[in-house]
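The passage that follows is intended for readers who have already worked through the single-chain material. We present the inputs for a multi-component assembly, then the predicted structure in tokenized form, and finally a short commentary. You are encouraged to pause after the input and sketch how you expect the pieces to fit together before reading on.
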Amino acid sequence: EAQVTQNPRYLITVTGKKLTVTCSQNMNHEYMSWYRQDPGLGLRQIYYSMNVEVTDKGDVPEGYKVSRKEKRNFPLILESPSPNQTSLYFCASRREATGVTGELFFGEGSRLTVL
Amino acid sequence: AQKITQTQPGMFVQEKEAVTLDCTYDTSDQSYGLFWYKQPSSGEMIFLIYQGSYDEQNATEGRYSLNFQKARKSANLVISASQLGDSAMYFCAMREPYTGRRALTFGSGTRLQVQP
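Having made your guess, compare it with the prediction:
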């Protein structure tokens, strides 16, 4: 089954404790991206990757890091989480060759609370 | 400036009735794509329908149709014969080809509640 898998789905942590949210897709997609969703703001892009070893900032990259060492994996790293990073996080992927038409396939979301 | 505007934070509709969720967008590109996603209370994002800027026909997918008015820059989602399971958050999104990020830009969403 084609899917994007995120872990953990739920996490409560404390300020400053480094954490990683993993994302893996099994569709051989070139493009992967992280979004955060906050009430009233919709989804905002954090980082994206066009392919292995190619990453770039989205709209709200501050406080986050990513890496793309393998095509299927795109982990999101919070080096020193703060309460304003409490949010619902989505990983997404798509085939790069689809131009404007290709839909984004989303993971199930990771709800993060930073105390 | 807002790229995607959804002016209805919340909507109510009676079961079996049709409902229109509004979406306006702003772009200077001639080629772009418009998407609608559904987010039920469980949280996942479900792709509903896509409209390309050059598509002459309005997109349809089952009970979902997209009322695309290019000159007005609107891409409203129409759900016919609403069902209780349609209660969810709905997001309109746009992809522009030359942003470099090729991201989807999302609106703030409309929460739809279907009443029995």
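Commentary: Chain A has no helices and eleven strands. The longest strand of chain A covers residues 42-51. How closely did your sketch match?
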